[in-house]
Amino acid sequence: MVAHPFSIPNFRAYWVARLAATLGQMAMVIVIGWQVYDLARQSMGIKAAAFQLGLIGVAQFLPLLVLSLVAGWVADRVDRRWIARAAVSLEALCALSLAWLTWSGTISLPWLFGIAALLGVARAFASPALQALSPNLVPKEILPTAIALSSLAWQGGTVVGPAMGGYLYAAAAWLPYAVSAGLFLLSLAMLLLIGPVPRSAARFPGNPWSQMIDGLRYVRRNRLVLGAISLDLFAVLLGGATAMLPVYARDILQVGAEGLGHLRAAPAIGAVATATIFSFRPLKREVGLKMLFAVAGFGVATVVFGVSAPLLTRIYGPAAVGHDLAPAVLLSLVALFVLGAADMVSVYVRQSLIQLYTPDEMRGRVGAVSTLFVSGSNELGEAESGFLAALIGPVAAVIGGGIGAILVTALWAKLFPELRQARTFDPPATLEFTPKETST
């Protein structure tokens, strides 16, 4: 009888480590955004503060852009456990620094931007190492289940973490950073419990730069992986409604920091509900089509969220906003719930396809490319939303982004028929990649 991944001690420790680290990362992301907007708004006004939200997205993305190929190469050459341990330690240091600066009242925009960039460095190395580590911890027979659980830990942390950060910030501004530091230390402790793991014998011909580029070459040649990664990049890049949540919470829905927690909790609940269903009834058929429909649903939910406040304010007047049970707030929460559920379907399918269709010796580098694309969609999506909001206003930016996500899904269904034709998660019998031979 094949064991369940949770029956393997190394995988249990890994799963807790990834969940804790992701919770800490995402709790910090939402609070950093709120503090940047709050500080900038006091001296610059709403539109200029929204522009600063865009800049904070750039500050977090630039280290990923510069370091991702290096981080992927390192993850395929160095013990992935120690890479993850070092990165999580750096994240803990960042969280402790922000907790102290906020508690002491010395927090400022330069500190927020600098530490956000340092967090980007840590994430650049942590993400490919953790993604590539999970398949090394379990037998091949239960690898699909392990990948699904690993994706669940990451996605669960991604959607629950921001909600947690919003609620903690409402209690005390320094508290989410302190809790995040504790989560990073828990993650580090779990990673230290993971014993030596087997690695496949990998060939690394050519010079280091050529080896780094091999991850890009593999993604470019595997159209199923390329289509899945790039769809997420452009859809979320355009439909980054969550980047505007601080603006919506404070100035459009008028529900404050506590309301920001509710808004961030809504997609979390949608994603967790979807993940719970998958844990009992995993997707088995027409996985590509379901991913396409999920991304389109993500765009529709984004549009509904964008129009809820202006539409219902016209109907109900000022009573449409301002408290938790106001009509515009309730419709916004429902739209965000659906958005989170649709995003979970997309993430589940994409991560499973990437891991199952990639040979182990390439997982670090392909994982780095995936991280670059996903982070590009998140951080650059925040930047795009912030810059567009500064130009045309936050409501128009959200609605336009949702429409863009729907159009991208339709275009990708045509450009990548491999996505429509992906019936199951079953990979080819052999996964081969011939690295480009270069002289050293």
Describe the fold and architecture:
The chain has 440 residues and is mainly α. It contains 15 helices and no strands. The protein has one domain (8-195, 210-421): MFS general substrate transporter like domains (Growth Hormone, Chain: A). 78% of the residues lie in helices and 0% in strands. α5 (143-171) packs antiparallel against α12 (327-356) and α8 (223-238) packs antiparallel against α14 (394-415). The protein starts with 8 loop residues before the first helix and ends in a 19-residue tail after the last helix.
Characteristic terms for this protein:
15 helices, Growth Hormone, Chain: A, mainly alpha, 78% helix, 440 residues
Number of strands: 0
CATH topology: Growth Hormone, Chain: A
CATH architecture: Up-down Bundle
**In angstroms, what is the radius of gyration?**
21 Å
What class do helices, strands and sheet pairing give? Answer: mainly alpha
Strand content: under 5%
Secondary-structure element pattern, one letter each: HHHHHHHHHHHHHHH
Shape: globular
CATH class term: Mainly Alpha
Task: Characterize the largest beta sheet: strand count, sense, and whether it forms a barrel.
Answer: none
Quick synopsis:
With 440 residues, the protein is an all-alpha fold. The chain has 15 helices and no strands.
Write the layout of secondary structure elements.
Layout lengths: L8 H36 L1 H32 L2 H24 L5 H25 L9 H29 L3 H19 L14 H14 L1 H16 L6 H8 L3 H25 L6 H30 L10 H30 L6 H30 L1 H22 L1 H5 L19
